[in-house]
Automatic annotation (TrEMBL):
Annotated Low complexity bias: 245-258, 336-347
Organism this protein belongs to: Micromonospora halophytica
Biased segments, Basic and acidic residues type: 227-244, 290-306
Sequence segments annotated as region (Disordered): 214-388
Protein name, as recorded: NADH dehydrogenase subunit E
Source organism superkingdom: Bacteria
Reported cofactor(s): [2Fe-2S] cluster
Record-linked InterPro entries: NuoE-like, NuoE_dom, NuoE_N, Thioredoxin-like_sf
Lineage of the organism: Bacteria, Bacillati, Actinomycetota, Actinomycetes, Micromonosporales
Keyword Methyltransferase: no
Family classification: Belongs to the complex I 24 kDa subunit family.
Keywords in alphabetical order: 2Fe-2S, Iron, Iron-sulfur, Metal-binding
A GO molecular-function descriptor: NADH dehydrogenase activity
């Protein structure tokens, strides 16, 4: 090995590997590649050898991964990696013109670095920000809606030693500093991750969901990004609150008098130390966002997508497309979707987890039973008769 990595890098490598189960340590390869890149500015042959050595892999295995992903650089890279999206959407909006202007001004082509070692320019494929096109990133932070002049302004400020503020996200750092973060270590600069916020196009879906009363329990789209210290403090307070709410071991159960009306969500509506019903349902003590009724978000989403509830929905759970190519018969789409929701436990993110084995058949039967009570039974029966 021609390069001796620093003690700090070696300590970080041990920390990364310790994040994974002992028999899965090769999963640490991706962050380790970022780590060696954070020291050398690219993944050198020595970096490949280092990763292979600490993970017990051979160099071919490491090289195969390092050469697959474009974020691992194979040649020394400048302090600032300027990536201009020239994919379809950005291209028609002027992305190629931005790239050509920068290439001419800097005197470099794709994956080349200026003589002062400051800027590396590259074409990028879609940067997943088409709604802000044309976009470019500097060390993976976004500059939205750029044009040749504004892009030139950014690179000139960088070459002059400035740190222009990205349109969204955290403030700029060098590529080596970014590689440390990508290896899984926090950016310690004051306020480094609390700058900026999402743009309105990014939040458009959320705003529409709010308008239509669709919400994820406990989620506030305006939640500020907390620093780690603040997040730790909030977590500690929540833990202390939960501990304080635990019932005393000797506390006797209390029974509300028969017929007493206790408003939901008020003290006494749940057992001592138990969360209120809404909290039990969502697992969260934060207020729901604009929930106009007691329906689950999944049911509300189904009703929003299919408000008339009496037309065929080919992809609703429990719906089978006839094999003879005819259009599916009318069915109660809301009931079919609701049955599918009920049959699939929500995942941790609140979304349906997907059909488990047998769920399609069960959903279909439940939907048929529902359809039989609203006059659509004969149509469903004939459809299933075709399929069987
Ligand atoms: S095409 Fe440029 S971000 Fe998608």
């Amino acid at each position: 090995m021609t390069t001796t990595f620093s003690d700090e890098t070696r300590a970080r490598a041990r920390e990364i590997i310790a994040r994974y189960p002992a028999d899965r340590s090769r999963s640490a390869l991706l962050p380790l590649l970022h780590l060696v890149q954070s020291e050398e500015g690219y993944v050198s042959p020595a970096g490949v050898e280092f990763c292979a050595e600490v993970l017990g892999l051979n160099k071919a295995q490491v090289g195969a991964v390092a050469t697959f992903y474009t974020m691992y650089k194979r040649r020394p890279t400048g302090d600032f990696l300027v990536s201009v999206c020239t994919n379809t959407m950005c291209n028609v909006l002027g992305g190629q013109e931005v790239y050509d202007t920068l290439a001419e001004h800097l005197g470099v082509g794709h994956d080349e670095t200026t003589a002062d070692g400051k800027i590396t320019l590259e074409h990028a494929e879609c940067l997943a920000a088409c709604d802000y096109g044309p976009v470019m990133t500097v060390n993976y932070d976004f500059f939205d809606n750029v044009d040749p002049q504004s892009a030139l302004g950014v690179v000139e400020e960088l070459r002059a030693g400035g740190r222009p503020m990205p349109t969204r996200g955290a403030r700029l750092c060098t590529l080596k500093e970014m590689a440390v973060q990508l290896a899984g270590f926090a950016d310690e600069r004051e306020g480094a991750v609390a700058d900026g916020g999402p743009g309105e196009p990014t939040l458009r879906g959320l705003r529409l969901a709010e308008q239509h009363g669709i919400s994820v329990p406990g989620f506030d789209p305006n939640t500020p990004i907390r620093s780690k210290a603040e997040a730790d403090k909030v977590a500690a307070e929540a833990k202390a609150k939960a501990e304080a709410a635990k019932p005393a071991p000797t506390a006797a159960p209390t029974t509300a008098p028969t017929g007493s009306a206790v408003p939901s969500g008020t003290p006494g509506s749940a057992g001592v130390g138990e969360p209120a019903p809404a909290e039990r349902a969502t697992g969260s003590t934060a207020p729901d966002v604009k929930a106009p009724d007691a329906k689950s978000p999944e049911i509300r989403a189904a009703e929003t997508r299919q408000p008339d509830a009496q037309t065929a929905v080919a992809d609703a759970p429990g719906t089978k497309m006839p094999v003879d190519g005819t259009a599916p018969a009318a069915r109660d789409a809301q009931k079919a979707e609701a049955a599918g929701t009920a049959a699939n436990a929500p995942a941790g993110d609140g979304k349906p987890a997907g059909d488990e084995a047998g769920a399609q058949e069960r959903n279909l039967k439940e939907a048929e039973a529902g359809a039989g009570t609203n006059g659509a039974g004969s149509a469903v029966a004939s459809e299933t008769g075709v399929q069987k």
